## 1
Amino acid sequence: MTAPTVPSGRPGGPEDPDGVHGTDGADGPGRALPGGPGPGRDSAGLIRAEEAVLAPNYHPLPVVVARAEGAWVEDVEGRRYLDLLAGYSALNFGHRHPVLVEAAHRQLDRLTLTSRAFHNDRLAGFAERLAALTGQEAVLPMNTGAEAVESAVKVARKWAYDVKGVPDGQATIVVAADNFHGRTTTVVGFSTDETARAGFGPFAPGFRIVPYNDLPALEAAVDATTAAVLLEPVQGEAGVIVPDDGYLSGVREITRRAGCLFVADEIQSGLGRTGSTLAVDLEEVTPDLVLLGKALGGGIVPVSAVVGRRDVLGVLGPGTHGSTFGGNPLAAAVGTAVVGLLETGEYQRRAAELGIVLRDGLAPLVGRGVLGFRTRGLWAGVDVDPALGTGREVGERLLAEGVLVKDTHGSTIRVAPPLTITEDQLRGALAALERVLSAG
Ligand SMILES: Cc1ncc(COP(=O)(O)O)c(C=O)c1O
């Protein structure tokens, strides 16, 4: 085993064994990056400028990223950081994966947008291969995750009225407490997170909330009006909450018995993160609809999709649903390249193998700054002892150590590195976490 590579957050140091970020060339510190900030726009200046002009709906860590490759990002001053957030899993394949960048470049030179008013020569191949990869039959392409969720809500309701025979206007959808499915008004309407909800009503009716990981509660909530059960196979934003073994197959069984749809939101858990293509694969469960997003766009363009049964997606007729950008040829080209990477099985395998390194690296920290943690594949929610500070404060200390993470819910930090991260890089990041916790 070679020594862990520990990023330092300093420019030009030996922490970049791949030599991917030269700092003494034309792009080095003190010189303007092509298309980058102008004179006087250092990190602090850019943060002040953002705060002056942007809606204040985020509280980013104080780092201004200018370039990235693989698991590394580099800030305006040329400091390097290991990215352990990976765009909330949109960067499962790392920053600027050469295969994905090449696919995007090739498509940019040919055709970028047609709208679905016309056909394009990229969409069929993308949909065929995505359906085959996920073991499903049909694809509804959209752009963002929240749009995929909204689309599934529409499809499930229409299916309930047209196929199941639910009286008009009475369809219900059962969701889990502590869910995160996006930010639209319908979706925050069935959130249990007051910060996400408060002040945005009135909300759409028709949702029933049950505790996550509680099959009897779910069974009690479904009835003749239920169109679908919608939930995350692993609750990402809630802190990487992994349900008990048997929960997902139990959900499948209950929904089958109740004659309603099982909609799995795999927008964060899907596409390799958990060590399998989909998190539901780990229990050999096939939902009726699967929602994909984030990594489907390779970290290049927003691409989402509802994939599922043909007879279910088939309830949508022309004019009932759509999106100007959904299924555009650039998205389809990048999405096809993403599917191509996943078809090799390499990224799923890496997530499973590196997930063991992650789990084994976190285990000794329990009782030494960590109260507990949960992992699934290369994905962890780590509950830091609140005595050491909030998750945000731990994130700031890790930033100083050259590691980027994001806190969620108080003292939990989530770790979701690109699946391309090397074992040494991961061990280096874990060593940084250990240092931060022991210094706290
Ligand atoms: C499970 C899940 N569903 C939906 C979304 C919403 O995706 P987007 O931000 O692309 O709308 C997210 C985003 O974090 C998510 O984690």
## 2
Amino acid sequence: MKYAVITGASKGLGEAIAKRLINEQIAIISVSRTENEEIRGLAIAKGIDYTHYSCNLSLETEIQEVFMEIAHSIFQKNPNEILLFNNAGVIDPIQTVGNLDQTPIIRNIQVNLIAPILITNLFFSKAQVTNTKVLVINITSGAAVRSIEGWSVYCSAKAGLNMFTQTAAIEQAELKTTNKIIAFSPGVMDTSMQETIRSSSENAFKELEKFKELKEKSLLLQAEVVANSLVDLILSDEMESGQIYRINDLLN
Ligand SMILES: NC(=O)c1ccc[n+]([C@@H]2O[C@H](COP(=O)([O-])OP(=O)(O)OC[C@H]3O[C@@H](n4cnc5c(N)ncnc54)[C@H](OP(=O)(O)O)[C@@H]3O)[C@@H](O)[C@H]2O)c1
């Protein structure tokens, strides 16, 4: 039996990944602050094992508590493989440096960077003692490698996530484990994160008009298309640990 743990499965890319994996008969553990009832319904209809855990990933204590419980429950079932999608993300604060508020800065780094590090660390540690294969998929962004004015915190968190991915991959290779860890850059998708971006101010975000145009001209990718390409890569077993994959490379 394969299990997939997906953070941020309540909407956007996480929701699309969960739906595709249910159709692939993979058991789902969903983690976010709110639950998506459609996913629960789909899992029940297809007879797939599904559990939702409510967790605020900006709070370290909640992460520790919830993920200890998740790890305890799935590793003891001796799964063939665990897929861990560190997908939950936040774009805020959108603001220039010097005008940022402290709380959203900390929340952004907690959700986008610290949570994936804590969860991956816990899962690799459990994998060592149970001999379970863990595949970690960290959802990154083009903003990890391109400086975007107004997005300094988001760019920094995603750049950190790329480096964490590459470093952990080298370590796993050195240890000769079967675990793999990749990052995946999904491109610009038509999700609620883009709504947040379009509702920011031009003073805070220089590229605002460009992003509004992407929506007006229907140039945003659909989350389902992105999720399908990512899941195809994972299920093909061709994913190379330490790689930072980009959606455009998979679609072409
Ligand atoms: N959309 C894009 O154009 C784009 C581009 C590049 C990269 N990405 C990356 O793709 C990933 C998915 O983004 P998306 O566009 O699908 O975003 P989205 O539609 O805004 O969904 C974000 C998800 O993250 C969860 N989340 C946010 N804050 C959380 C918190 N404090 N605790 C727990 N869960 C939290 C949300 O769940 P709840 O609200 O229910 O908690 C939601 O399920 C992110 O990592 C994002 O950085 C997106």
